[in-house]
Design goal:
By secondary structure, this protein is an alpha/beta fold. The protein contains 18 helices and 17 strands. Helix 10 packs across helix 18 and helix 15 crosses helix 17.
């Protein structure tokens, strides 16, 4: 079922902030930025409206201004700010998923009790071997237990608890997560927007013992960073984990809840089905919860491997969404030539792509200047996703190539070493550079091995295949908003 919305359903009292990536050019009448990158041209009235919003004004009651604001939000060019919202913490049922280790419920329920009063707390016991212990801990905190006698996986446990919730909003929290006391405040505000189905906090790693815990302080797999985003496959924030999230009950019913056939990646699948149905999912890093790292390197590697195995079943449900690399075919060709020892030829291919881009930017006042800037920055920024694909998903192929080719060996070593060293130099210094590089390589290798294992299990190679898009000259790169969409109504 696809949600249907009015174009001007954004609350008039909302305010907007432009995404940090956005540049305004052509006298403010064009915006460049967002993720994926886009160019949006607006009328004079639209530029004036954006000026007012940047200065702190409300979106306003004009249907045209609200449509433009929605366009910016949907494109990831802006983010909303709401003063309060229609819901409070009493409108939230919190579902805490658990299968074992009842004692790990204690810090979670302690943290929930320290925050605002919730409408209800349900402990979803998914066929645990220690039901009495879980029931005792839940009773101590006034929580209800919904138990499955046979383990069905995290999706089944959450769905069983969801069926018992009566509040309009449901929060999902894993049994070892510790939310900040005010973690719901920023998330609740997002539900002022009727399109928002899910708002998710930042998941920070807790300090722990061992190098893997130190690594996760800066590179935790559930930490999606400090920059807010609209969650869209293929963007800077492509998913949010169910480790902690707040959802609109009606939207979950709309898509049928979690897919119980998935043991891993069920949260990613839920988010993508919501997006495909027309709902909005927001990542809100001003809300923070804390999650422990795995206690030892072996279990840490096993976790990464399991994450990788989800790629194949996710691709079956959402073709192309888990591609290891998605970029312009020209950019891929340029970096591919450089990697095999032909940097000058690769540079020539990149320059050719840059020369064709201005033809697609005819709506701008300076298409050549903007085209060369966009193409140059795009080519330079591509090194990191290319390196990640080589060392993460494609490492078995890369390793084979490195064994027989000196050029390939040099390229693989650079791809494995340069990104973690750059991150270390930019502030990821919980570990010394040698261990930072070693654990990054191990992290990537474990995840990539999981991807290949999942592909073998599901008899598919699609999660290994890159997506090549946006060949220059095929279509216009800039879109426009008509004056009727931006002028006061």
């Amino acid at each position: 079922m696809t949600a249907r919305w009015r174009a001007d359903d954004l609350p008039a009292g909302a305010r907007l902030v432009l995404d940090a990536s956005v540049r305004r050019i052509d006298g403010g009448r064009a915006l460049v930025g967002g993720s994926p990158l886009r160019i949006l041209r607006v009328s004079e009235a639209g530029a004036a409206a954006i000026d007012a919003w940047v200065a702190g004004e409300e979106v306003g009651a004009s249907a045209g201004r609200r449509r433009l604001a929605r366009r910016l939000l949907d494109g990831g060019l802006a983010h909303p700010r709401f003063a309060g919202g229609p819901f409070g913490s009493a409108d939230v049922t919190c579902v805490v998923a658990v299968h074992d280790h009842a004692h790990l419920l204690v810090p979670t329920l302690d943290a929930l009790r320290a925050g605002e009063t919730l409408g209800a707390v349900i402990v979803a016991d998914d066929g645990s071997p220690e039901p009495a212990e879980i029931a005792e801990v839940a009773a101590r905190y006034g929580a209800t237990v919904v138990r499955r006698d046979v383990r069905g996986g995290p999706a089944a446990g959450r769905n069983a608890a969801l069926a018992q919730a009566v509040t309009p909003l449901v929060a999902f929290v894993d049994r070892d997560v510790e939310p900040d006391p005010d973690w719901l405040v920023e998330l609740l505000a997002h539900f002022s927007d009727p399109r928002v189905a899910v708002a998710a906090p930042r998941v920070r790693s807790q300090p722990g013992y061992g190098p893997q815990a130190q690594f996760d302080l800066d590179r935790g797999p559930l930490d999606l960073g400090a920059v807010e985003a609209r969650v869209v496959p293929g963007s800077r924030v492509a998913y949010v984990p169910s480790t902690a999230l707040l959802a609109r009950r009606a939207a979950l019913d709309d898509v049928g809840g979690f897919d119980e056939s998935l043991q891993w990646g069920e949260d990613v699948d839920l988010v993508w089905r919501l997006v495909e149905s027309g709902h909005t999912v927001r990542y809100e890093p001003r809300s923070v919860v804390f999650h422990p790292s795995r206690p030892d390197v072996v279990s840490w590697v096993r976790q990464r491997f399991h994450y990788g195995t989800s790629a194949a079943p996710l691709d079956q449900r959402h073709p192309g969404a888990v591609a290891p690399l998605s970029m312009s075919g020209w950019t891929a060709a340029a970096w591919g030539l450089a990697a095999v020892g032909h940097p000058l030829l690769g540079a020539a291919v990149g320059a050719g792509a840059a020369a064709m881009l201005p033809r697609r930017l005819g709506m701008l006042e300076h298409p050549w200047r903007e085209g060369w800037e966009l193409a140059g920055k795009g080519q330079l920024a591509a090194w990191r996703p290319v390196a990640s694909a080589v060392t993460r998903t494609w490492w078995p192929i890369a390793l084979g190539a490195a064994l027989v080719s000196r050029r390939a060996r040099r390229a693989v070593v650079l791809a494995a070493v340069v990104p973690p060293l750059v991150d270390w130099a930019n502030g990821d210094r919980a570990l010394d550079p040698v261990r930072a590089v070693g654990l990054r390589v191990l992290d990537d290798a474990a995840y990539g091995a999981g991807v290949w294992a999942g592909c073998w299990r599901h008899r598919t190679i699609r999660p290994l295949v890159p997506t090549l898009r946006s060949w220059p000259g095929r279509r216009r790169a800039a879109s426009s908003v008509a004056a009727s969409d931006t002028e006061p109504a």
